[in-house]
Amino acid sequence: MTAPADFERMWRDLAPIGRSPVSGGYFRQPWTAAELELRSWFREQAGARDLIVEEDPFGNLVAWWRPVAPGEEGAQRPSRDPSPVLTGSHLDSVLDGGAYDGPLGVVSALAAVDLMRERGVRPARRLGIAAFVEEEGSRFGRACLGSRLAVGATSWADARELTDPAGVRLGDLVEGGDPTGWLSGVDCYLELHVEQGRGLIDHDAPVGAASGIWPHGRWRLDITGRADHAGTTRMRDRADPMLTYAATALAANEAARGSGQRATFGRVEVRPNGTNAVPSAVTAWLDARADSGDALAELVAAVEKQALQRSGLDGTAVTVTAESVTGEVSFDAALRETVGSAGMPVLPTQAGHDAGILQAAGIPSAMLFVRNPSGVSHSPAETAGTADCLAGVTALADALERLIG
After folding, report:
1. CA–CA distance, 64 with 85 (Å, rounded to integer)
2. What structural domains and CATH numbers belong to the chain?
3. DSSP per-residue codes, 329-373
4. Per its UniProt record, what Pfam families does this chain match (predicted)?
């Protein structure tokens, strides 16, 4: 197989995989047919470039470009070369998501290797291109699960019991086990990602760097009431968990708007989910993000307080459970100086990324963003222009060349 000559050809290859013919959005949930096809594509692209692919027990993939001596192309040095550099992103998507969130970083990393080879770069140390699994948490509810497992931030004993909405257990899909330590010697990690907001639009810049990630998390609200008839049950006689949920969602919106933070209820399950029945239970998931740990704690506490107060009026019960919480992340300042260029905007991000997990685990990390002219993400409307994507590839190749050359 011949390696694709450019970014655009690789992008065309990926475009149809997992795409909905109805919405135009993507359904690339982990360990489904679409995501498995992307993993096969990744292996093919790595093989076409003579990169050596490894897979850890959790499904994370990494393709290694190893140092070679002059005149010995293809003669790989031992895998224990010290201080490798890592780049990459993820291949999975949210439900009905955009094309760029995740795959842009993987495709750009492969294209950056092509560009460095065209320049005659010979790596002095290994470069790994990672494709982390279940970054979005769209199937098993735990964001950045692959990178959390790889660094030991989440245990396999905990993760293997996670189930998807259909009741499929993660431990029945993945071998799992102890982390293999493939990240233990990594010197630094650089992730390119489509911007998921409007910062680069405001700066009129194609590429920017990230300063850090807001603290954020997911909380599950289990609200129980009493099932009853929608017609014969008087309003004053009901214990309706849907009312408790609705009031809580409105309160979360008000609290976040008033404090300049973020609060979203984007997933709700209702039982028994009948049109002509008062529900017996509602389970809702709160996604909350804030510009500091204290602000996040205050926001979640305000939402929980409202839920409990409203449940007292409705005759329902509420339990709030934190499912995943990530603290504030400040990316490595020295690395950001290395990967950035003069005049490149530096932006905070409210979105979670594998780079945040690695930075929190002690691996110096940085991020590059590519402009999203729609300003919309986690949606079929997410986009990026080809010229901006190519500028991102160049910025990534420039940075990696400084790191591995």
Report:
1. 10
2. 7-214+328-404 (3.40.630.10), 216-325 (3.30.70.360)
3. EE--HHHHHHH--TT--EEEESS--HHHHHHHTT--EEEEEE--T
4. Peptidase_M20 (PF01546)
pLDDT digits (tens, 9 = 90+) for 330-369: 999 999 988 887 789 999 999 999 999 999 999 999 999 9
The encoded tokens of residue 291 equal: 């510009």
- Report d(CA 55, CA 191) in Å as an integer: 19
Tokens linked to 200: 């680069």
**Nearest alpha-carbon partner for 379 in 194, 245, 106:** 194
Which pLDDT belongs to residue 74? 52
The pLDDT, as a whole number, for residue 398 is: 95
User: Residue 146 and residue 142: Cα distance in Å, rounded?
Assistant: 9
Name the pTM for this structure. 0.87
Residues 210 and 367: their CA atoms lie apart, in Å, by 5
Read off the pLDDT of residues 85-125 as tens digits, 9 standing for 90 and up. Answer: 999 999 999 999 999 999 999 999 999 999 999 999 999 99
Report helix, strand or coil for 160: coil
Instruction: Give the number of other Cβ atoms within 10 Å of residue 52's Cβ.
Output: 15
* Structure-block tokens of residue 339: 């990967």
Specify whether the CB–CB gap between 160 and 151 falls below 8 A: no
How many alpha carbons lie under 13 Å from residue 276 in its C-beta half-sphere?
2
SS3 assignment, position 398: helix
Structure tokens at 98: 């955009």
State mean pLDDT over 144-172: 96
Peptide bond into 67 cis (omega under 30): no
**3-state DSSP call for residue 222?**
strand
pLDDT (average), residues 55-83: 74
Give the chain's largest Cα–Cα span: 85
Q: Give the strand pairing for 317-326 and 85-90.
A: unpaired
Confidence at residue 6, expressed as pLDDT on a 0 to 100 scale: 83
CA 337 to chain centre: 24
- 168: its two tokens: 């499929």
User: Strand, helix or coil at 323?
Assistant: strand
Q: What DSSP element (H or E) covers 158? A: helix 156-159
Name 17's bridge partners.
none
C-alpha closest to that of 156 among 141, 174, 136: 174
CA distance linking residue 397 with residue 230, whole number of Å: 62
Instruction: Give the Cα separation of 27 and 228 in Å (integer).
Output: 36
Residue 1 has pLDDT above 80, yes or no: no
